[in-house]
Amino acid sequence: MPTLDYFSILQSLAEREVEFIVVGGMSAVLRGAPLTTRDLDIVYRRDAKNIERALAALHRLDARFRIKPEMSPNASHLESTGHKLLNTNRGRLDMLGSIGKQLTYEDLIEYSDELQVDDLRVRVLRLEKLIELKEELRRDTDVAMLPVLRATLAEKRKLNRK
Amino acid sequence: MADYDEGVEGLVDYDEAGVDLTLIRYALSLTPGERLQDMQDCVNSLQRILDENADA
Fold it and tell me: According to the model, what pLDDT value does residue A46 have?
């Protein structure tokens, strides 16, 4: 297992100008929730140009399917709304065509903002939307995360009122 | 929780769900880049321990 370096993965995607939104546990971390996560989940725009840019970034990261390490993602994989669970030379990256009730990049963009992550501008899902999605899904892993997400949102709101 | 907190009243801060609010306040005091680094350091440390104890 390579030493985890999420920043390098974000950097590779940003350098190729891939359009994406960080979702899942990593969006919670970037928004201030004290959680750990072992993968980076992103929802990406599934148009031809963005897929081409994403493939260039994935090639540089030597991305391969976790279930089938001999297979690298191709354009046809990225065109799908499904989840592409990948290993890269910098850690695990999940390329998600959609999340929840088939919500795509275009559906989620209004629930996200660009955050400054060191010298990168990274689009990240808002906590409110992440909580809503996890409440809808109701899977055990989602439910387990909810108390921390709700408490983080409450603390953020308190800080904003000050 | 009450037994554990005996003698340290006022020195802990949990919400109703048992979430440690001191951890949240610490994370919120960091920039997004620092939050990423902090989490990554934590996961890498755990992974090192797991790797060193693979037979355990």
Answer: 98
